[in-house]
Design brief:
By secondary structure, the chain is mainly alpha-helical. Helix content is 63%, strand content 0%.
Length: 70
């Protein structure tokens, strides 16, 4: 069962991703509040395989870990 806290994190992730999509479609810079970006990045990192993420993020492997979500 999903807790309220987890649900809020998922809504924040979805909102942040879609806001970035809209801003890109409008040709605007990605002006998203830093806390929303940070929490979205944390949640995506939690979903990824930790070793694959670290190796991809540090250039030690081809980023096969991405996309984290489909």
């Amino acid at each position: 069962m999903t807790t309220w806290g987890e649900a809020v994190r998922i809504v924040l992730l979805e909102s942040t991703v879609h806001l970035l999509d809209v801003l890109d479609a409008l040709g605007r810079p990605p002006q998203v509040p830093a806390p929303a970006l940070r929490e979205t990045a944390h949640l995506l990192a939690e979903l990824a395989d930790p070793v694959a993420l670290v190796e991809a993020a540090t250039g030690r492997a081809t980023p096969t870990v991405f996309p984290v979500l489909r």
